[in-house]
Design a protein that fits this description.
With 98 residues, this protein is α+β, with helices and mostly antiparallel strands. The chain has a single domain, classed as Ribosomal Protein L30, Chain: A, CATH 3.30.1390.10. Helices cover 42% and strands 20% of the residues. Bound molecules: L-tyrosinamide.
């Protein structure tokens, strides 16, 4: 009697791709209005939410402003830095593994 072979293949466990937090940092030169503009245009925050987050960063030094898969997080980071450069502000954001 031949052995019955299972046709069901074992599923290789692929770990879920990690998300990355996008963190906006405070500085002394970027205007509050510009940070609010970035939070609205890049991170789709409402006016009230953008102002609340901006003031939190201003007081505490930094804040997570979103969490995304790596490619999207990198794109957001680049958009922030491009907008900041175009407008001659030193605004910085960094990514951190979630
Ligand atoms: N500290 C800035 C000021 O007083 C405002 C600011 C807030 C800058 C948040 C950057 O991520 C930031 N003009």
């Amino acid at each position: 009697m031949g052995e019955i072979k299972s046709s069901v293949k074992k599923k290789k466990k692929l770990s879920e791709p990690k998300d990355f937090k996008v963190i906006l940092l405070n500085d002394d030169y970027t205007t509050m209005d510009f940070v609010v503009y970035v939070l609205k245009s890049v991170f789709h925050k409402s006016e009230n939410e953008a102002r609340r987050i901006m003031l939190y960063i201003h007081k505490k030094g930094q804040s997570v402003v979103g969490q995304y898969p790596l490619d999207i997080a990198r794109t957001k980071e680049e958009q922030v830095h491009n907008l900041a450069r175009e407008n001659e502000f030193p605004l910085i954001c960094v990514l951190e593994e979630a």
